Amino acid sequence: MRRVTPFEGPLKLQGFNNLTKALSFNLYDFVVARNEEEKQSYVQYIQQRFNAQKVTEVLEGICNIIEANVLAVSDQDYDPWGASSMVLMSDLKGGQGTSMHMDKSHICAHTYPDFQAGRQVCSFRIDIDIATCGEISPLKALNYMFEAFDADLAVIDYVVRGFTRDSEGRRIFMDHELNSIQDYISPQFLENFHSVDLVLGSENIWQTKMLRTNLNVDEYFLEPKKVSEDEKNKYMERIKNQMRGLLYMWPE
Question: What is the mean pLDDT of the chain?
């Protein structure tokens, strides 16, 4: 477990913005593991690429994107697999001779590999939750997260809660326009997915589900040259069934 505290002493809060913007980014990645050897190879890959330190690096990258300062970090690897990380961050404004304003926020991430015995389709899921206050916009980090992870399926939820006040003291429940989460995702990512939106604008709730449609078959096999075309077709149907099942929440 790592802990980092770069600031000493308490930080003064002035003009605090009570609007809370929460972004939940759930991502799934799939691979075919036809036998125990291939499964263990995938397990090792996941443990190396998505261990706690690597996940923390991604979260710190998100802080960079949304222009937030890292206050503290705590991360943990689990036995036999899986990892968690949490970053406490702030949006600090001001400088010499000016008052300091802090919008306190945090990011947490958890990984959920699924290597169940007897199954030949393994999956990796990571959940990233960003809770911010004030002017920080977590939506700005979406493209970075698509770059950082291989996404076969993504479920993105965005909720704004609480209220702030304008200069005349009136309550404000939303401080930015938003029609769809897709507006914040680059076209180069969107073109590879079938996307479905749920918009409850009056409740400040948005959701976008994204299912990859542009599939590079060989990327789903650890040793594609050793797999016949017939086998690839058979396994890809299983992959697609898993993806659709998770998208529409079908029981197995």
Answer: 87
Closest of 2, 48, 19, 33 to residue 175, by C-alpha: 19
Integer Cα distance of 41 and 44 in angstroms: 5
Residue type, 175: D
Residue the block writes with tokens 């393994």: 122
122 is catalytic: no
List the one residue out of 123, 137, 139 whose CA is nearest residue 39.
Answer: 123
**Choice among 105, 108, 122, 137 that is catalytic:** 105
Q: In which element (H, E) is residue 187 found? A: helix 187-190
Domains of the chain, CATH where assigned: 20-247 (3.60.90.10)
Amino acid at 17: N
CA–CA distance, 105 with 69 (Å, rounded to integer):
10
Host H or E run for residue 123: strand 121-133
Q: Which candidate in 41, 74, 110, 195 is catalytic? A: 110
Query: Is residue 101 flagged as an active site residue?
Result: no
Amino acid sitting at position 247: L
pLDDT tens, position by position, 62-99: 999 988 889 999 999 998 889 999 999 886 544 333 33
Cα–Cα distance measured from residue 247 to residue 223, given in angstroms and rounded to the nearest whole number:
27
Nearest-angstrom CA–CA distance, 75 and 86: 6
d(CA 65, CA 226): 41
Give the HSE-up count for residue 193: Cα atoms under 13 Å, Cβ half-sphere. Answer: 24
Say which of 63, 108, 122, 133 is annotated catalytic. Answer: 133
Q: Is the pLDDT of residue 8 over 80?
A: no
